[in-house]
Design a protein that fits this description.
Jelly Rolls; homodimer; DNA-binding; 8 helices; Arc Repressor Mutant, subunit A; globular; four-stranded antiparallel beta sheet; 2 domains; alpha+beta
Chain lengths: ~250, ~250
DNA sequence: CGAGCTTTTGATCCGAGTCAATCTTCGTGG
DNA sequence: CCACGAAGATTGACTCGGATCAAAAGCTCG
């Protein structure tokens, strides 16, 4: 069980602390969770629609996606997940998985038995609330994605998702100024925005031509962050980051 | 404070019991919540994006919608809510409302202070889990809506949302066979499916012409339920209704 | 009974999908 | 170190679902 020198470096602790003050006792309780850590290659399913998992996972490294396939073979990605996220935490209370979960990049994934999480929640209502809250933020992001896909054109959609990814990457310390690694393919961006891969590509070229982004070699840079945000009509409120403080 | 003869008639109790077994003690605890009940006309906001509410609401009668307006004045509805639903329960843990909530039809709404809900959750982890679960089902519905709007054409989208509404209406006892009241306007259906009102209307006429639905006089009937489900590729798994049992 | 929605219809236009081919990139094995 | 194959990115040509605009017709309710 590979560990982190400083508990605060553990992605899950980091995540929970970003919104809740954790006591030493609570931190210890989280670190005491039995986590089975596994390395998974890129583009592999972690769990599938219809499964009835007895555990949830936490992302320790890498990026994953939640998606569904439609009858006629189209794919819709509903979410990307960053280190610290628990992408299938909902299975703690919803028996059947309603969507599939897979890796985007190569990942290190930690699996935690539901029983352990339930015990934790039963014995500590503060941690229960913290975990609950993370699922509420996920839901808020889904709502924004409904708006993105339902009411914005291709240019805005791609701009918006790039904004979101950058801000969330920053939250987990993976950005360098306005740049971050971008293991997500254009096809995946298309499937996340309800566009075809061809059109997504054209829109990306437009964003480049307009000097808003650089996207190449697995790296993304928001060349002109204010302009990109404006093009996307991006308002990060829905991410509910550090809600007490002001932030950009 | 108008009450229900039988506690099991209380929409909130009903809702929680549909997935969790409640003990007498838990039922009593829920009924003891201080609920301020208010009558609200159709088409009125209950809470707005940006608000920081100190209470959440439960729908006692009528239908509400969660929505956002985009910069350029377009509206996207992200959810409809039925009696028993708590459409802004997320505000218990997310300080700022990221979307607006308003009535579709005239409604009776019960307001419950966050403090009361928090106390309930702190003292009863089972009820906390039950409430948490309702927000997880909401999230699952958002995911399905992303798919609906992102990867289905207009005909399927409208068919799908009609299926969802009928099934959820049935869940709360508002259907008569395959019919239910339908206070939702075509414009609202359009805003919920990412279509224009004109196109939504045309699609609805197609569904009528194909003998799948009847929609008039504030009433909806699924004339040919199997065919409607098939046209929508509707799989109710995502609603997580009575998950132990089989259901149609 | 009239104002204001909601629903409907017609005409026109465009964003985005589809199909098909080519070009890049990159990991892998020889 | 390079050839090869597979996946990802790009380009061009063509088509179409659905948006927009405009106006008429039905409803509902104060």
């Amino acid at each position: 069980m590979p560990q982190f020198r400083n508990p605060a470096d553990h992605p899950l602790i980091r995540k929970l602390q970003s919104s809740f003050e954790l006591s030493d006792h609570e931190r210890a309780a989280v670190l005491a969770l039995p986590i089975q850590s596994v390395e998974i290659r890129a583009n592999q399913d972690i769990a599938r629609e219809g499964d009835r998992p007895g555990r949830s996972c936490v992302i320790l490294r890498g990026i994953t996606r939640t998606y569904k396939m439609t009858r006629d073979g189209k794919r819709q990605i509903m979410a990307f997940h960053m280190p610290g996220d628990m992408p299938d935490l909902q299975s703690l209370h919803l028996k059947v998985l309603d969507s599939s979960l897979g890796t985007v990049s190569a990942c290190r994934i930690g699996f935690i038995p539901h029983d352990a999480i339930r015990d934790l929640c039963d014995s500590n209502s503060g941690l229960a609330a913290a975990l609950w809250r993370t699922t509420l933020v996920d839901a808020s992001i889904f709502r924004e994605w409904v708006v993105n896909v339902g009411r914005r054109d291709g240019y805005q959609r791609i701009a918006h998702i790039m904004c979101e990814i950058l801000v969330r990457m920053r939250e987990v310390g993976l950005t360098d100024d306005h740049s971050c690694p971008m293991p997500i393919s254009q096809t995946e961006l298309a499937d996340a925005t309800g566009l075809s891969a061809v059109h997504a590509n054209r829109v990306i070229q437009d964003l480049r031509a307009d000097g808003l982004i650089v996207l190449k070699g697995g790296m993304f840079t928001a060349l002109d962050w204010p302009a990109l945000k404006a093009a996307a009509a991006f308002d990060p409120t829905y991410l509910h980051l550090g809600e007490g403080r002001a932030s950009d």
